[in-house]
Design brief:
With about 230 residues, this protein is mostly helical. The chain is about 70% helix and about 0% strand. The protein has helices spanning about 5-15, 20-40, 40-50, 55-70, 75-90, 100-120, 120-130, 135-150, 150-180, 190-205, 210; strands at about 225, 230. The longest helix is centred in the C-terminal third of the chain and has 28 residues, at about 150-180. The structure holds zinc ion (2 copies).
Length: about 230
């Protein structure tokens, strides 16, 4: 098995969405590399300038990463954002803010990971079947789309396995609600409690910038939206 196969296997044997997990780890490594080696790199500064210091999600993630580990010198973030502030002062309010380079990198990585899963679907299905992993909606759809032309029968197999997992989480969540009632002395199990997080993960994916885009169907963009029961 090649390296990507090893990473995929590991991700598919753990709890949560394997693709989100791999992207989160990739994003973490990318931010760490910037802080560790490249905060003074002119190319990095140029790339950052185009987006005026990344998207809000990655700018704060970079800041949090630097603050959370004593290995990183806070000087790294200071150097980068001193350059960004200088650029803003020079350019004024017409300063351009293009696509965040880290979002672009993560999107490329996502494509590579999904393609690799499609290519290795035989092995992947074996891991996925009995593991606590569950694909989020976005990544499930991307994989199913990839399989539609390359291996439709495997796509059907994935659909069946996935549906079983969704039903299982649904049952666990219903169990959690039911056993939270005072009539149950024992209360919900740990597994049932974990189903709360899993249900959000299934629908929305991990809290990553890439998942903010979600899957909004065009037909759902109606006028006079109702938010929390109130028209706005
Ligand atoms: Zn995902
Ligand atoms: Zn970004």
């Amino acid at each position: 098995m090649d390296m990507i196969g090893v990473y995929l296997k590991e991700a598919f044997l753990k709890e949560g969405c394997p693709v989100c997990r791999m992207l989160r780890e990739f994003e973490g490594k990318t931010l760490a590399t910037i802080l560790y080696e490249h905060s003074n790199d002119p190319q990095v500064i140029t790339d950052f300038k185009k987006s005026l210091g990344l998207c809000p999600y990655h700018a704060w993630k970079l800041f949090e990463t630097s603050a959370s580990n004593s290995l990183y010198d806070p000087l790294g973030v200071a150097v980068i954002y001193e350059r960004m502030l200088a650029h803003y002062l020079e350019s004024g309010e017409n300063v351009k803010e293009e696509e965040c380079p880290i979002c672009t990198l993560v999107e490329e990585k996502e494509r590579i990971v999904v393609d690799s899963i499609v290519k290795r679907i035989d092995e992947i299905l074996e891991y996925y079947r009995d593991s606590p992993a569950i694909l989020c909606r976005r990544h499930y759809r991307m994989i199913v789309e990839g399989l539609a032309t390359k291996a439709p029968e495997k796509g059907e197999e994935l659909k069946n396995i996935h549906k079983k997992k969704l039903k299982n989480i649904h049952e666990l969540l219903k169990g959690f609600i039911e056993k939270s009632s005072y009539m149950y002395e024992e209360g919900p199990s740990e597994e049932e409690a974990r189903a709360i997080r899993s249900s959000i993960l299934i629908l929305k994916g991990e809290p990553l910038a890439i998942n903010q885009k979600g899957f909004v169907e065009k037909s759902s963009k109606k006028r006079g939206r109702v938010i929390f029961g109130r028209k706005n």
